[in-house]
User: What shape does this take?
Amino acid sequence: MLELRLVQGTLLKKVLEAIKDLVTDANFDCSTSGFSLQAMDSSHVALVALLLRSDGFEHFRCDRALSMGMNLNHVSKLLKCASNDDIITIKADDDADTVTFMFESPRQDKIADFEMKLMDIKSEHLGIPEAEYQSIVKMPSQEFARICKDLSSIGDTAFSVVISVTKEGVKFSTRGDIGSANIVCRQNSTVDKPEDATTIQMKEPVSLTFALRYMNSFTKATPLSSSVSISMSSDLPVVVEYKIAEMGYLRYYLAPKIEDDEEQS
Amino acid sequence: MLELRLVQGTLLKKVLEAIKDLVTDANFDCSTSGFSLQAMDSSHVALVALLLRSDGFEHFRCDRALSMGMNLNHVSKLLKCASNDDIITIKADDDADTVTFMFESPRQDKIADFEMKLMDIKSEHLGIPEAEYQSIVKMPSQEFARICKDLSSIGDTAFSVVISVTKEGVKFSTRGDIGSANIVCRQNSTVDKPEDATTIQMKEPVSLTFALRYMNSFTKATPLSSSVSISMSSDLPVVVEYKIAEMGYLRYYLAPKIEDDEEQS
DNA sequence: CTTGTGCGGA
DNA sequence: TCCGCACAAG
Assistant: This one.
């Protein structure tokens, strides 16, 4: 028996918007510690990892660990039937092949439930080692999204972005059909709100190249958090992390391009 | 001679948006009592009935009853040329085969008139008996529209919706490609505004099945009224009614599906 | 946050 | 033509 009650149902809606373009089918794993998902994108290049800790739910019951395979487009469609202020409850029996999403309006005058068949999905749960990163950039998530969008418009999403971190700041560079572009963000903690700050924790300067189109996909998570952190080390996948308030995180992992080829499909 | 002056021209625009998808050609009937229309949809399954009482017009002159056949798409196109705050006047001579729509801007600084040919349309005016309904649900029209839209998104519009009324509330159910859905709305009169209330007048519980795509078409009338009433009895067509303030109503009639087949083209 | 509107894409 | 998305207003 599994029963998860999430008062901020809109979080779940945003999570699905943030991953459904990258991953079509995935297992949601539920255990006493929380609700999580780990999946490669369909071209097996990027990895998405979601964690919603059990203590972030208003009610969290999970008698035994369950892995529930779902088509994320279907889940997204169901969640579109929930209003942003609805309370969402996810229910499943231990041996059932279906899951039920229940949406309650705040005043309890409308209750909707949707039952969906589960799928069998080959699990590929990878252990992701905790690493020390040479540089960690934290910046407003909207600013990061804007940069990725702007750089994409210069060339097209088939191009690469070079992210270079020095003590002074972080530089995003690309080269495209029209020309080349460099956007530099400097450290900046003298800001009204802490989430507007751009901070850089740098042990060593680092400069890595990534496929821009993945970065753009990652920014679908922007509504989840006002800031994003980008953790980089040479020869390690970059981690783009959006914290989910009081509950966990949504992380994207992407391996750097080894050479400095600018184009790649 | 016929001359109808409607200060709230936007009403007429909304009416046409609400019926033109269902009905392509229809007779507008004008008599001293008002301006009305009754027509079957093109597949002869649903019936649309409009009434705009003469006292709702600023000026209403109708020397003798007239039935004016029009292509509703053409009328809709003409009305798109009127601004929402324009005053609309409909004119026709008794023996003419044309009708004129005149649009005046509120400050009288712009006057447009459009003449359109009338058509001969075989009239099929049905007497609709006043019936006692086992259950009448009144709810916010936007909520009803949202429910129909959500249920359609689960399967597709080819599916059916089961509407069941009990004392506690009204339940809308469907079953689709992705899964099954139930949405329950409870009675709820402790609301700030009366039009936000959901009320149920129930003599007997009733449960009927309808083609979802027609329900969805009916919700095109949502802009006409903040609330909708759904009147049901076993073996009678459901009546979905949108009141038009101070003037009349727009009603849709739809026969229930006899069997419980879920799919139907 | 919801609603209405304008725009672009399918 | 219709639908979904993005923007702006209440």
